Amino acid sequence: MERNALRARNGIKLVAGVDRPGVGLTPKDVVWERGRTQLWHYRSDKVRYSPPLLIVFSLVSRSYILDLTPGNSFVEQLLDAGFDVYLVDWGEPDERDAQNRLEDYVDDYVPAAVERVRELSGADEVNLFGYCFGGDLSLLYAAHHPDAPLRSLTVLATPVDFTKMGPMADVFRGGLEVDDVVDEDGNVPPRVVVQGFKTLTPTAEVTRYVTLWERLWNDEYVSAYQAMTGWSDDHIPFPGAAARETVQMLVRDNAMVTDRLTVGGDPVHLSDIRLPFLTVRAERDHIVPPEATAPLIDLVGSEDKHELRLDAGHMGLVVGRTAARTTVPEIIGFLRKRSDEVGED
Amino acid sequence: MTSGTPAGPPLWRQAFDAAEKRVTPHAESLVRTPGFATGVALVRRVQNLAKDTARGVSARAWHLVNLPAGTDVARLRAQVGALDREVRRLTVQLENERRRPRPADVPREEHDADGAQSPGGPRPRPARRGAQRPPRA
């Protein structure tokens, strides 16, 4: 009886959308912005390492997954470990971003963010960190700008072999064009992105609701459910021109693997990346399957390169216990070795 | 009613899990077939055809009374968007230019080679410090 009462109470809260857990709460300042893009600097009085860490986020989802809730935040752990953390957030693209191409991000925004971080921190270099598709942007940036002021590059759940990306990529090889899915504002709408992700695990939606019903009495579960499903259903439009380029170059030509990448008309080779490099892949990732990330370690030209394989899902890399116990400490360990203690000569 | 062992999932959940275990592999292989990809493309095209036809009819109706239709507004939005992008790119490139070393600090030929660019032209490179670091010992 008691559980049924709790179920009823939590069910009403869920349906009414009240009492949602706060997300992305770590204090931060906007230190640069252009269009919808912002560079955030997380406040910290515990900075012990230099150079600063610049996170480049994905183009299709919300960046608060990296700072989900207090106590369950990737950013918070990085700050506690003594890093000076910045994040490029792409905001919510609208019709003004429909013409954005990959080169806008790779040649304009990321370099501008890197320069702003250097300017603010006084550091000569930055440690660059790319999450999911943000990892692809980081790879393209590092490869197209081999003389960029980077100390190291870390990418998390970053696909390179798009033939292994499953149904979401298959539909574009099966005749679907980006123009078939763009909205009136010229962008791929979030609902298409969400549907695409849901197709990857067609029964997961039903299982999700069944599990929710079973554990609806549990406040802790409901709170985590609200935060996680809130994020996974809350995507942003994918700028149309960048989506066309992604589909043609990365999906159809599989250019990361076949070495046919171009940015702004210039050929780009991942083998030109010679930085200390870390790639993290999740073995149970349904969104970016491990097979799609596997070739990356062999494609970059770095001598100091490492691959970390974790028994986790896509979100489990940055959220939850696996992240706190394994992913984040490993990344912190890698970055510490490539950083200087502040005050050290 | 009391038991020393923790209770397992309820019966209904066990039944659901058994069914899900059987259905999921079939559903996942179905969405990975070429037929599914073609089907999705076909359905989307038919939807777009229906939408475009309806839009065409309504656009003609609005144009008859000399008023702009939704498609005209969409075209204008796209043009404003393209212009906004060009301005944004120029602003970012100008910012990056300003942050570069002054002419006296760089070799003459490099400075000359990196003049102002149009957004459609080759991208200027960011301010550079040196080659990517070799791995640390």
UniProtKB/TrEMBL annotation, chain A:
<dbReference type="InterPro" id="IPR000073">
    <property type="entry name" value="AB_hydrolase_1"/>
</dbReference>
<dbReference type="InterPro" id="IPR051321">
    <property type="entry name" value="PHA/PHB_synthase"/>
</dbReference>
<feature type="domain" description="AB hydrolase-1">
    <location>
        <begin position="74"/>
        <end position="164"/>
    </location>
</feature>
<dbReference type="GO" id="GO:0003824">
    <property type="term" value="F:catalytic activity"/>
</dbReference>
<dbReference type="Pfam" id="PF00561">
    <property type="entry name" value="Abhydrolase_1"/>
</dbReference>
<protein>
    <submittedName>
        <fullName>Polyhydroxyalkanoate synthase</fullName>
    </submittedName>
</protein>
<dbReference type="InterPro" id="IPR029058">
    <property type="entry name" value="AB_hydrolase_fold"/>
</dbReference>
TrEMBL record, chain B:
<feature type="region of interest" description="Disordered">
    <location>
        <begin position="93"/>
        <end position="137"/>
    </location>
</feature>
<feature type="compositionally biased region" description="Basic residues">
    <location>
        <begin position="125"/>
        <end position="137"/>
    </location>
</feature>
<protein>
    <submittedName>
        <fullName>Uncharacterized protein</fullName>
    </submittedName>
</protein>
<feature type="compositionally biased region" description="Basic and acidic residues">
    <location>
        <begin position="93"/>
        <end position="114"/>
    </location>
</feature>
